[in-house]
Amino acid sequence: ADLQDAWCDPRVRAVVCARGGYGATRVLDHLDWDALAAAADASAEPKILHGSSDITALHTAFGTRLGVTTSFGPMPAGVLAEDRPDGDTLAALRAALFGGPVTLPGTHALRPGRAEGPLTGGTLSLLTALLGTPYAPPPAAGRVVFLEDVTEAPYRIDRMLVQLLQAGWFDGAAGIALGSWRDCGDPAELDAVFAARLGPLGVPVLAGVPAGHGPRQLTLELGAPAVLTASPRSPHDPRPAVPEPGALTLEA
Fold it and tell me: Among positive and negative, which fits the CA dihedral 139, 199, 161, 182?
């Protein structure tokens, strides 16, 4: 009721979720989607839904059913509650909420290249949980996919990626940006999983994007135009541009 009332209130420009956790998927069946769509259409300025982690369920449903862009980023009960939140985290949040481009640097490219398209994705475990439901994420064809998660072992991440692959969800994806994988095991093992499962797609894959559950949580606008660049790291190459691993840029 609180979510419905806040979104449908014409005085409200943004609905900011206090935290993630568990249970957002249960909310979906209790929302009046016609009323939510009418409120979005009637608003003079685009309404914003902001949150991350479990809120991926709401991002996916709002984006698909209402056709709105949504804001995936830090929440008040998370890193924003710290005495001194990371400066880049705050700057990216302001840009997403009040306008302006956002650039998120990656740490390394698992497969080099360049991709453009609307940004989609979110927390991996939520995306897979929505498959086969009326709120399933739309196919990633032509889109730049962002994925992240927390406290999921590499074998579980492998299994979820296989599920999405077998469902055909990744078919035609333009590129993939991998965010933080906090407490998800050995980073080298994770990279091996990503390379094995995502490499055969033949699209650029950029890892280490500071978004998700890490100490730096830059804000992503799901549904916004995105440009992903992933360059092979080659410290011994004399050309200065080559060592740059790449970035994910969201256009205002």
Answer: negative
